[in-house]
Amino acid sequence: MSSLRDTWGQRVTELATLDPRVLVLDGDLANSTRADRFAEAHPDRFLQMGIAEQNLVGTAAGLASMGYVPWLSSFTVFFTHRALDPIRMLVAQTGANVKIAAAYSGVLTGLTGKTHQDVQDLAIMRAMPGMTVLAPADGVECRAMVDWATTYDGPVYLRLARDASDAIFDDSYAFVPAAPRVLRHGDDLALVTTGVQTSRVLEAAGLLAQDGVHASVVHMPCLKPLDEAALRSAVAHTPLIVTVEEHTVLGGLGGLVAEIVAAASDSPPVQRIGLEDRWGESAPNDALLEKYGLSAQRVAARVLELRRPRAARVHLPGTE
């Protein structure tokens, strides 16, 4: 097991050894985001910008215009809320070659509570014209995405989790932009997920199989751009689609999937599992996953409930 922030810090440090254009700009959080590894290895290409994320983004846009490849490092919430206007005006609208490493995404942020948890970031960033939005499931995928993003010419948003997650992919993995990945096949329903929630959904699919329910698991590493035809093909054979995300159910993965599927004729219904329209709380990881219905056990229980006839359903706390 490894954390995405560790993988990012290690890989961007390695890439800077190969490419002198690679820089890291940090918002006074290098020991948390693991940008301190880059600072130690490449002190002349590490810019400590302090608690001034707006200025950090503006500086990065200027450096990109000079041919550098700046990676920005801070907590997710500071990019998507505090520095959103500079990202919109200086990066997305200009197509600047800036890469945003958004650490501490979602609710599992080390007991920081609602001030530092960001479960709106995917909705915000996927609505930003010109922005590529990536959410790796594990360290292998994260490393491949860092490689791809560093060579890609344009804005990239990379969603990084704080804590270690289970390994899903092996060294044969190759990142293909826009392509969903079917990780498990089943005909009873399709579970569509993204980021580190994918490992919990795979576990939930295993629990469902013990109850005789066979679910496909479709991982969405790239929320924008997206191969819409490939997604429709991956879920078309099932009578039910359930999206699962460590994110609000408003405008994120669930909204994206519903938009695409609804445009097709005879599409299966879409149900969404994620955070309701609410702020987070400060608590240990397992407690938060249980509270918001995102643990493997809670996801499996919710799916079984959704498969019952509507009249027989009961409301599960933390679910729709």
Describe the SSE topology.
Elements: E1 2-3, H1 4-18, E2 22-26, H2 30-33, H3 36-41, E3 46-48, H4 53-65, E4 69-75, H5 76-82, H6 84-92, E5 99-103, H7 121-126, E6 132-134, H8 139-151, E7 156-159, E8 164-165, E9 181-184, E10 189-193, H9 197-210, E11 215-219, E12 222-224, H10 228-235, E13 241-248, H11 253-262, E14 270-275, H12 285-291, H13 296-307
Parallel strand pairs: 2-3, 2-4, 4-5, 5-7, 6-7, 10-11, 10-13, 13-14
Antiparallel strand pairs: 1-8, 6-12, 9-11
Helix pairs in contact: 1-8, 4-6, 9-13
- The span between the termini is 31 Å
Estimate what percentage of residues fall within beta strands: 15-25%
Q: Walk across the major sheet and give the strand order.
A: 3-2-4-5-7-6-12
The largest pleated sheet is described as: 7 strands, mixed
How would you describe this structure in keywords?
Rossmann fold, alpha/beta, globular, about 325 residues, 14 strands, five-stranded mixed β-sheet
Overview of the structural elements:
This protein starts with a strand and ends in a 13-residue tail after the last helix. It is globular and about 60 Å long. It is an alpha/beta fold. The relative contact order is 0.12. The chain is built from 13 helices and 14 strands.
How would you summarize what this structure contains?
Helix content is 39%, strand content 19%.
